[in-house]
Amino acid sequence: MSRVDLEHLRGLAANRWQWLRRQFDDLEALRQRLDYQTYLLAAAGLVASLLLGFADLATQGSIERRQAEDLLATLTQVLPAGLYDNDLLQDTITIQDGAENGLGKTEVYLARKEGEVSAVAFKLSAAGGYSGPISLLVGLNRDGAVLGVRVLAHAETPGLGDKIERNKSDWILSFEGRSLENTTAERWRVKKDGGDFDQFAGATITPRAVVRGVQSGLGFFQRHRAELVSPPPKGAR
Ligand SMILES: Cc1cc2nc3c(=O)[nH]c(=O)nc-3n(C[C@H](O)[C@H](O)[C@H](O)COP(=O)(O)O)c2cc1C
Fold first, then answer.
1. Residue 128 CB less than 6 A away from ligand 1
2. pLDDT score of 1 more than 70
């Protein structure tokens, strides 16, 4: 190899070496930048979580108060005002039977007049709706007749299944006065199935589920009637 070729090769190798050094320098700079960005992201995440935590704490009390107000407003729709003089939200009994709501237990609101239980109300979950379970609040007098039913939550189709809501139609009022005594099991069905309750045009599944749910709620009351109308004193529950 000639001296010129050797010089040329040495020049090439030196260039290559310079290039490699530059790459390493760049990588080092990049690594430092990445570290900095990671710390920045972690700090931003921490600040955001702290802010969310504080906001949650700050709103928890008012959310619970609003939920209690909403529940009381619905309770007063299924329990006529003349039937009680107690605080419905404070006077409750927990029954270890959750067949109607899938929770394993049911909280029952007791309506008392001069200390005597005149009516009760409880939530239940009606299975088999078109879009899942339908949450109901049922009020019954001490003889097990329906005073009122209201839908608390549902995911049925607007314009079809949502006529179960009181503000959409009168249908939910058709349970008032019904009991297991005055309505036989065969009649606790929609008319299309041979029962007493209207279905909606093009929507039978939703009312069928609600009828079955209310009927099962009456079964729950019947099973626990003695305990509900003569509950033990609060301390003994
Ligand atoms: C998009 C869509 C939404 C529907 N939503 C409901 C509903 O919310 N509730 C209901 O009862 N039926 C709903 N239906 C109708 C039911 O599929 C069914 O046809 C109807 O309830 C009649 O039931 P039946 O055959 O048992 O009488 C819906 C149908 C469609 C296509």
1. no
2. no
Residue 72 covered by a domain = no
| Domain annotation covers residue 70 | no
The four Cα atoms 36, 40, 46, 50 give a dihedral, to 10 degrees, of 150
Residues 153, 114 share a domain = yes
Residue of 131, 165, 204, 210 with the most ligand 1 atoms within 8 Å of its CB, for mutation: 204
Q: How far does residue 78's CA lie from ligand 1's centre (Å)?
A: 28
CA–CA gap between residue 75 and residue 88 (Å, rounded): 8
| 147, amino acid identity | L
Q: How confident is the model at residue 102 (pLDDT cuts 50, 70, 90)?
A: low
Q: Are 213 and 116 in the same domain?
A: yes
CB of 112 closer than 8 Å to CB of 86: yes
Report how far ligand 1's centroid is from the alpha carbon of 102 (Å).
25
**pLDDT number for residue 236:** 64
Q: Which atom of ligand 1 is nearest to the CA of 157?
A: 8
The residue segments making up the domain with residue 121 are 79-236
How high does pLDDT run on average in the chain?
92
Asked if the structure places residue 36 within a domain, the reply is yes
Same domain, 119 and 227: yes
Stretch 115-135: mean pLDDT, rounded? Answer: 96
Q: Is the CB of 157 under 6 A from ligand 1?
A: yes
- CB-count burial class (<10 Å; 0-12, 13-18, 19+) for 219: middle
Mean pLDDT, rounded, for 163-172: 98
Kindly report the pTM of this predicted structure.
0.78
- % of the chain exceeding 90 in pLDDT: 76
What is the count of structural domains for the chain? 2
Kindly state whether residues 100 and 196 are assigned to the same domain.
yes
- The first and second tokens of residue 6, run together, are 């050797």
Residue 87 and residue 32 in one domain: no
Q: Is 86 in the pocket of ligand 1 (CB under 6 A)?
A: no
